[in-house]
Amino acid sequence: MKFAHESEREFARILDFYGIRWEYEPRAFPLEVEPDGRVLESFSPDFYLPDFDLYIELTTLKQSLVTRKNRKIRRFRERYPHIRLKIFYGRNYRSLLAKYGLSPAGARGGRR
Q1: Domain locations along the chain
Q2: Which whole number is the average pLDDT over 19-30?
């Protein structure tokens, strides 16, 4: 499977290790729509965990880009309050990898 970022591949490996079923970017949620129905902006969470009815978004971006992503997530939550979404920011993601003895994508050392 082709992932947009190596962090997504690493996260999928952790899910696979624990036998957690997942789907990669299975759905795009429209955030801004023209009156004629044309979608101007959408949000596609990175993972969906069907057994938990939970979407996961990994945000390992530079801090300067996180603000823009947060605005998009805020609009998602306003428009789809019934959809469960968990955000893993860079620090959360690095803690998760450290817990499993892995290094973030591109870092030296640790297991892969």
Answers
A1: 6-99
A2: 97
